[in-house]
Amino acid sequence: MLTKTPKVSVLTPIYNTNPRHLRECVESILNQTFTDFEFLILNDSPDNIEIEKIVLEYAKHDKRVKYIKNEHNVGISRSRNRLLELAQGEYLAIFDHDDISLPTRLEQEVNILDNHPEIGAVSGFLRFFDCKKEGALHTCPENDFEIKCTMCDGCYFPHTASMLSKSVLDENSIKYEEYYTP
Question: Model pTM?
Answer without folding.
Answer: 0.87
